[in-house]
Structure formats: C-alpha cells, structure tokens
Amino acid sequence: MDKKPNVIYHGSSKKIIGETINPSQGDDSDERPDNKLFGVYAADRKDFAIVMGIFSCKDVIGGSIDGFTKNNIDAKIYGKLPKQKYIYLYTLPSKTFNPSKIIKHQFVSKVPVKPVKTERILISDYLHLLKRATKEETKAWVKKYIK
User: Fold this and answer.
1) How confident is the model over 89-116, as pLDDT tens digits?
2) Predicted structure pTM score
3) What is the largest CA-CA distance in the chain?
4) How far is the CA of 92 from the CAs of 22, 28, 61, 108, in angstroms?
5) How many other C-beta atoms can be found within 10 angstroms of the C-beta atom of residue 97?
6) Nearest 5 degrees, angle CA 119-CA 122-CA 128?
7) Spatial distance between the Cα atoms of 8 and 107, rounded to a whole number of angstroms
8) For residue 3, what is the enclosing H or E element?
9) Tens digits of per-residue pLDDT, 116-129?
C-alpha cells in the first residue's frame, strides 16, 4: 500500500462500552507475531474487518485468512457458524495506527481509538465472505492451535 487511508475498520462481536475501543492483547499463534501485539487491530478493507468480527463471536472455534484479491477475501471459518445475529463495524480515524509488518491490510494502534461511525451488521448478509472448513480441516486446526 502506498498511502495510509484516512479511515480504517474494526469488526467486533461486541458493542463498545464507553467512547473508545481500547487496546487488548492479541492472542494468535506464534506463527503470526503481528497478531500477538497489545493494541487495537483494524483493517483498510471492510470485508477483512467484517470477517474478523465474525471470527470473534463467542461460539466460533476459529478462522483463518489466506489471502486477498482486489474484490475478494480468502477466509475460512472452523466449526459452526455464529449463533448471534449481529456484529459491529467501527470506522476509525487512522491517525494512531501503524501498518502491520507482515499482514497485508492490517493496522495496529497502541492507544484507545474513538470511532467516527458505528454500524450494526447482520452476519447473514456477509456469510458469502466465508468458506466453511470440513470436519477434517477443523479437527486438524483445533489440534494445531487450541491448547
């Protein structure tokens, strides 16, 4: 990416309490140290943020993003689809965010960020962004990543 956008997006299964999204400890695998930082994670793509919001739902075992094209995201969800009906998409000013060193389209802010816009997103409208993992793929993923 040549230039940081003016706004970026954060997807979450929860509505924020208060005015800001606060940094938290990333908890991804050791394979992706960029996802283990303490910060607010966001993306310059709405589809990426929406998928991450869906992945953060309580009853989702996990998910992976294997790449992007101009108009698509290659995302896979492990286990069942979320039971909850909505997630939240926050539009954030990009001022305090820095690009991820490894993960394309991802940004991290080490300080709280106040959204400029909040949208309640119906999950069923965005299930086309996800591929469902097979039972075998889910078993292998759980064995590798869930301790």
Assistant:
1) 999 999 999 998 877 898 999 999 999 9
2) 0.88
3) 42
4) 12, 23, 27, 11
5) 26
6) 120
7) 8
8) none
9) 999 999 999 999 99
